[in-house]
Known about the structure:
alpha/beta; 7 strands
Amino acid sequence: MTKPLTGQLALVTGASRGIGAATAEALAAAGAHVLLTARTSGGLEEVEERIHAAGGSATIAPMDLTESDSIARLAAAVTDRWRALDILVLNAAMLGSLTPVAMIDGKEFNRILTLNLLANQALIANFDGLLKASPGARVVALTSSVGAKPRAYWGAYGASKAALEALVLAYADEVAGLAPVKVAIVDPGATATRMRANAFPGEDAATLKLPKTVGDAIAALCVDGFESRHRVRMAR
């Protein structure tokens, strides 16, 4: 039986662990060939091995999204091999320190904005042509509740997510009517990830949803399709 995403190409950032890895595995299980990007090649290789062992298809591209020209080089390599990009999952992010706004370290804030916002703009810019070449491209951006509802000590991370939402929704409006590119924002809610453990070190991870639950939901969203400017807020 043909899988629903057979013949489609997906790119997932931050795919070496957590929600990114789970999403990549779910998309591969649905038939997509998945490009896996993250800084840690070892983690990417483990995800790739699991995908192949399950009968899926994947290619790893170890890289630091914050390095100058790294995204442009990736886009050029993908363009040389594939005609279109059908799914782009903007997942990679860093939390940074939870601290009062008046005490945010400028250098760390710059790193947060570079990865959580600027790198995602560069991904959209460099893959725009390949997305528009797809008969039905989907862009999925991972966000957080603190992007919409500011919380004390979460100013740096929340600001990066609020800006990311504004960015991808603006892109959705820009491509509407020009190309069949749809954009969704997904807030996974409380999930048992390393980032969550760093933010809430005393929390019982057994009370949280697994990354697989989120990954499966994102894959199902890509299979079923959605209207542009779509929002998903997953329950705890």
